[in-house]
Amino acid sequence: MDDKNYQVPLSALKAERAKGKRKLKLMEERMKHFADDRDQLTENLMDGSSVGGDAHIAPAEQTPIEIVTHDYLTELAQLIKNPNYADSTERIDELREYANEYGVSLKTAYNSLFAEEKFEKIRQKTEAEAMQKFQAKQARKIEAVDGGSGISKKVAKLNATQIAVAEMMGMTSEEYARYM
Q1: What gap in Å lies between CA 93 and CA 68, rounded to an integer?
Q2: Does residue 80 contact residue 55 with C-beta atoms inside 8 Å?
Q3: Which of 102, 46, 106, 26 is CA-nearest to residue 71?
Q4: pTM to 2 decimals?
Q5: Does some domain include residue 18?
Q6: Does residue 153 share a domain with residue 75?
Q7: How far apart are CA 162 and CA 82, in angstroms?
């Protein structure tokens, strides 16, 4: 468009104006819906009633009314049903602020804000469980019959490498222990 004398067609201007009017009308409807939701939330918080399902909202003095809308309450109720997000009600202020700032859902906001913390807890728990299993395998005692006579028995301790070798050879730990 290097032509300095280029003029926008009147039909394009009218179409853009109509598009703007539709956006404005939609925004007005959303604002009205928001005001209705805020009034309903205020009522619910004041009388202590719940927000759908088993979810309960904190008392009004703990949750600022102006930052919670119906959409977020519904999403929060769904989110706290999942045990991984159970502490969402305690973190609603941070979640709502992040969700509004970046235009994302509460679940996405939670994951963005607290994923590293959750991951570290899960990693530590998994590492501890794996270490316990490893130590239990290391200390597993195997009773083996000496030479197949069945008279004298000895107890052999197999380490993880020996157990792995036995499994690779298609033997049970007891069979492997007999031939040690």
Answers
A1: 9
A2: yes
A3: 106
A4: 0.37
A5: yes
A6: no
A7: 42
Q: Which among 57, 58, 90, 91 has a CA at the least distance from the CA of 73?
A: 57
Q: Quick one: 158 and 120 in the same domain?
A: no
4 located within any domain: no
Q: Are 93 and 40 within one domain?
A: yes
Report yes or no: 138 and 160 within 8 Å, Cβ to Cβ. yes
> Across the chain, what does the average pLDDT equal?
75
Containing structural domain, residue 154? 139-178
**Domain match, 76 and 107 both:** yes
The answer to whether the CB of 43 falls within 8 A of the CB of 51 is: no
63 and 122 in a single domain? The answer is yes
Element housing 144 (H / E): strand 141-145
What lies within 8 Å, CB to CB, of 114 at 6+ separation is 91
For residues 65 and 69, give the distance between their C-alpha atoms in angstroms, rounded to a whole number. 8
- Beta carbons within 8 Å of 161's beta carbon, 6+ residues apart: none
Residue 44 binned pLDDT confidence (cut-offs 50, 70, 90) = low
Pairing relationship of beta strands 153-157 and 141-145 according to DSSP bridges: antiparallel
Q: State phi, psi for 124 to the nearest 5 degrees.
A: -65, -45
20 within a domain of the structure (yes/no): yes
Total number of residues shown for the chain: 180
Q: Which residue has the higher pLDDT, 66 or 158?
A: 158
